[in-house]
Specification:
Elements: E1 4-5, H1 9-21, H2 28-50, E2 55-56, H3 58-89, H4 91-95, H5 97-108
Parallel strand pairs: 1-2
Amino acid sequence: MEQQKLPNATLILVFGILSIVTCCCYGVLGLVFGIIAVVMANKATALYNQNPEMYTDFGNVKTGKILAYIGIALSAIYLLMSVWAVSTFGLESLQDQELMQEKIEEMLGE
């Protein structure tokens, strides 16, 4: 029986990488890419487990899944930090450097 590549193995790896690279886009893009990569990786893993001798590129699936989990974690942290910053300082303060400096000095009690 001839081996074939797992469907979407390379795409899973690319989405895993993109989830890390885009985690600083307010956390949203990284979460999207990461979640899609994990879902696709779970499907590919299930397919591979049914008949491991038939497929190649399982390493890409595993690596992509690990990268996706890292990207999801980084994106979630960045998203939470962004929400905290907006709720603490306000969106207007984040856009105005002088107002932001005043708020920080106010927080520090200077």
